[in-house]
Amino acid sequence: MQASNAKPTIILATSNGIGMGHLARATAIGVALQDRANPIIISMASAVAEIPEATGIPAEYITGRDRGLMPRYKWDKYLKDRILALVEETGATILTFDGVVPYPGILAAKMAKPELTLIWIRRGLWQKKPQRFVLGAQSKIMDYVIEPGDYARAYDKGPTSKRKESKLVSPVSLYKESSTLNKKAAKEKLGLDVNRPAVLVQLGTGDADVNEKMRAALSGLIGWKDLQVVLTKEPKDKNGNSLAPTGLDLKVVRYFPLADLLHAFEAGICAAGYNGVHELLAAGLPTVFVANIRGTDDQETRARWCADNRVALMADQSNLTDIENTVKKLQIESVRKSLSESCAKLPATTGAAEIADFLLTLSKPLVETKILRSIKYSGYSIYEVLRKSPLNAIKYLTIFFLEKVGLSYRTLFPHKANTPQLTGAPIYSDSSKAEELQAFVKAPRRFEHLISNSSPEYLQRRHEIANRAYELPAKGSKK
After folding, report:
1. Rounded Cα–Cα distance for residues 22 and 13 (Å)
2. Taking the mean position of all CA atoms in its chain, how far away is CA 363?
3. What is the pLDDT of residue 69?
4. pLDDT value of position 210
5. Which residue intervals of 161-246 are DSSP H helices?
6. CA distance readout (Å), 90 to 43, 172, 266, 385, 458
7. Model pTM?
8. Nearest to 204 by CA among 19, 441, 438
9. What are the residue ranges in the chain where pLDDT is below 50?
């Protein structure tokens, strides 16, 4: 599937984060590129299965390192080989990575193909976690680092806040007023009663403390007349017990991108992750944020900025009574009106378009064109463009060092696998249908996803990569 010479091919890779932030940003950038380039999204997040059908952007799901389907050292080589095979198949010249820590396989792909431009899409507002100690080395090996803007950036005191190598853009969001349905149409799309109020709840479940936060949040909605409560996941604990109090009209929906339907709701209750904040508030939706304290994302700081600037309400994530009482405030119409009016003053979320423009500048074949175009981007001077050299020996020694550090760290601190050991040949599929792909991802069997309309040579190469990683002698079957 060699891309047309008229349009450059750009691969947008993401990790499998706790939330949807990485994948949402990559999707927003992909959508911004569609008319002028051939974007392809690859991700370890299972939600990538939704993207081809919803947006028309080709995508590949890559089995995550924590699924336990192969040894860790083999997974990084598997990732490297997957990337290089896709680059060869499509003629891609740029690879972006949105994630907290660039995988050793990403770095190894760059080492194997120095002419591939590697860009780190690195969100700010980091907590002070161990990952901060290799920030400098990781940043230096990148050709470019781009920081998506954050409404709460003024409150950022984390390890990325003082770094100078990144190009700062506006906030990135899947929400666009031009593609968002009005209230009536959005409610009809979700199967809601257009004459009744609706609230969107996007909080996690699983761990005991998270479950209790969900229960407290839902309890705060009791008493809202004729309310419809919409969730993106069943409010149940790991044993299947309901977390919802009686008396609420609940509906679980699956729609991507949900940003297109945000006008269906009168209010929202959400974790204070990057995409939640920059979608719901960009849509002017009155929201209570309940910070998720796991991972590197400093959600408490982001939620505090929102509350201090009166664009959202913040509930104390450690206090169940405060969560319930703060959510109750959403029932007051004047509170919702005030929050919406404040949201209208927030800066535009045009970061995806800005990143797309920059990537297209880098895709131009002539160095002179790169230099002239780069003047428009205050983050990089002419010197910055000229000094980029894929043959820099120090850079590649650093890549080698970080690859070995990453592998050693995983050996010392292994993650618990989420799936049992699987046997047999994998299923190969180039489907772009969300429901079918989700079934493959969740099935108790190895799954190898290919972009649609790929060549026979690519399929053969993918068989070779998978057979080596899984130690299988025979080819699997393409479905």
Report:
1. 9
2. 23
3. 80
4. 87
5. 183-189, 208-219
6. 17, 26, 44, 25, 10
7. 0.89
8. 19
9. 4, 366-370, 372-373, 375-387, 390-391, 417, 419, 476
Q: Backbone phi, then psi, for 248, in 5-degree steps?
A: -105, 140
Number of H helices, E strands in the chain: 17, 16
Strand residue runs (E) in 44-158: 59-61, 94-98, 117-121, 144-149
What per-residue confidence (pLDDT) applies to 368?
45
Identify the residue whose tokens are 């070779």. 464
**SS3 at position 324:** helix
What six digits make up the tokens of 205? Answer: 């479940």
Residue matched to tokens 């089995």: 63
Q: Supply the DSSP symbol for 347.
A: P
pLDDT, one tens digit per residue, over 37-87 is 999 999 999 999 999 999 999 999 999 887 778 887 789 999 999 999 999
Q: Which residues contact 462 (CB under 8 A, 6 or more apart)?
A: 82, 85, 428, 448, 450
CA distance 406 to 75: 12
Distance of alpha carbon 161 from the chain centroid: 21
- In DSSP notation, 151-203 reads TTGGG--STTTT--SEEEEEE--S--GGGPPPHHHHHHHTT--TTS-EEEEE-
Helix axes 393-412, 104-112, angle to 10 degrees: 150
At 462, which amino acid appears? Answer: R
CA torsion sign for 127, 131, 135, 139 is negative
**Contact of 126 with 158, CB cutoff 8 Å:** yes
Closest to 182 in 3D by CA, of 264, 81, 118? 264
> Domains (ranges, CATH) in the chain?
9-172+351-478 (3.40.50.2000), 177-343 (3.40.50.2000)
φ/ψ of residue 120, rounded to 5: -100, 115
Task: Give the pLDDT score at 372.
Answer: 46
Rounded to an integer, what distance in angstroms lies between the CA atom of residue 471 and that of residue 466? Answer: 8
Q: Which amino acid is at 82?
A: R
Question: Dihedral (C-alpha) 317, 319, 322, 323: value to the nearest 10 degrees?
Answer: 40
Distance CA(19)–CA(24), nearest Å, equals 9
- Shortest CA distance to 317 belongs to which of 232, 210, 220? 210
For the record, the structure tokens of 424 come out as 């047999």
Per-residue pLDDT, 366: 42
Distances from the Cα of 259 to the Cαs of 90, 212, 254, 357, in angstroms? 30, 26, 12, 22
Residue type, 328: K
